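Schema walkthrough. Field components (list of strings):
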Amino acid sequence: MEKINLIQVGFGRVGRAFFELLKEKYDYCSGHYGLKLELRGLVRSQGAIILSSTKRVLNPSYFATDDLQYLSDWIPAITLSDLLDEFSPGVVVDCTPSDLKTGEPGFSLMKEALAKGWHVVTASKGALANHPTELSDLARKNKVAIKASGATAAALPALDVGLYSLAGTEILAIEGVLNGTTNYILTRMTEGLTYNQALEEAREKGIAEPDSSQDIEGWDTAVKMILIANQVLGTSIKLNEVKVAGIQGISREVIDKTNSLEKVLKLFGKCYREDCASPWKVEVGLALLDYDHPLATVNGTNKGIIFYTDSMGWVAVTGGKSDPRGAAAALLKDIINIYFMNF
Amino acid sequence: MEKINLIQVGFGRVGRAFFELLKEKYDYCSGHYGLKLELRGLVRSQGAIILSSTKRVLNPSYFATDDLQYLSDWIPAITLSDLLDEFSPGVVVDCTPSDLKTGEPGFSLMKEALAKGWHVVTASKGALANHPTELSDLARKNKVAIKASGATAAALPALDVGLYSLAGTEILAIEGVLNGTTNYILTRMTEGLTYNQALEEAREKGIAEPDSSQDIEGWDTAVKMILIANQVLGTSIKLNEVKVAGIQGISREVIDKTNSLEKVLKLFGKCYREDCASPWKVEVGLALLDYDHPLATVNGTNKGIIFYTDSMGWVAVTGGKSDPRGAAAALLKDIINIYFMNF
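Field assembly_structure (string):
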């Protein structure tokens, strides 16, 4: 039985879901994988809590409030640095909100964690999108892992399949339906709604954020595709190199025309190159898929990705919950796979 | 750069494909993963060849004949045992034909290889289906891996996703379209052919074996589902415990009725249990899928599998070449993943 020290940073939607999932899965992970995942600290921008173990947290009365700073253990002055020095290295779980322009606060905190010998699992996209090689180089140098399933398509195992299941193949191209909000809107429009009705409904159901421009304009899809390409293909494509078009204000006439052509309209991320000597390109925009395209039936908030390879043909993965719990499950999966090998 | 000794056993359709793929991918694996995959021996039932390295084999004139025993290095008296003792342990690549009733010759050769500290990757189903725990226990005891992607659904990464991508989830049920031949026949019948026409066409195209009864009667699907369930869920279900029905002699009327119901007919493997306290069951038979079922668009020789989980929702994988090259690529993938971790 191995004790793994965890430090969680960030307590927003994904952070709360991870925290709940960890409590729920503590016994399962110890019984099934021999891993005691001990949460030692919870860090927010204004301070932190130090915990003796996840067991302490398992006491339901302990976290009666969501607002950490009302807890008696809340220490306003303490930072992640203090905690990294306090405990022997395990895994830092980065659930901070991601600024796509700067990559902060994730970039700084991950750099420090990796440099101090901690593994990192992250749900935030900005740092990896802005610094495609720096973090992985640092991880390699310090012989630790940085895993980003939670940032790429959460519960949809895009990175696992690309890196692990397709090992030894050459990947010829990647396509993905990677954004739940836009896919939900397009699906509902196919079912008869106007753009504004579908967007409104997505907001009411909590699928679309109040400001969903990053989703609608295609940037979320672009970032995910970049992260996947950079890790799976070893490229170092940056966000400003990507041609991005979104679905904003798309009209019902377009959808009706799509239906009459017996095609399906999807917001599609693509990674391809003209030939083996050309550089890889990432593009995001609307695409018309035939009914028998493996991603054509990816509807509603579902996501999907397809890899075209030289020796395995194409392999597609679809599904995986598009919600904070799905992202939390992806973080937990990455933690387990750092320590547990299936032999 | 790490040198890995490989010994290949069996030189049938999958064996030849693996041999060709290894030559093709030698430089890629060394450049990309730092693994020099050195084929040291090729064993058949009547003897073996000892090779100095894959480099030797790369000389195209060397293997001008497919029939190994005409080569000057052919040694009739030599066996796998001799080779296992001759080289320092690496990976035994089992491409032997699989007897579903006895599990031989795979069972004996894998036992010996594992006991002598060799990892095993296998494309043969019989041994694992008949001895669900003995081989994995032996591997664990000897701290080596036994990997069976090549036996479960070849290039479709069913085991990877179940074991690796869904780590930390509880799997609630598994469903799969796991046999290319029967799926091809059903797809072509949906397109207007009779059962006999579709079967004949599948034979002409080399999709169906001359004796395809194991496919048609559902046994191939049953074995694959058992292997997946036993590894992913930790069960030890045997073939004689499975309720199996196939597609033999299915009439056009059934297909027409299916179409009129707006459903899709698939030969379906299922693994489920009534509740958490009940034992897992595997069943194989025809199933009517709604058009929006994630496996409904798995057509022709394609395969697909879906896992239902507690924390990631459902995750489906489809595609992956259903031919000897796809199976060979799965063997190669398993070898790489034994040695190469992505950090």
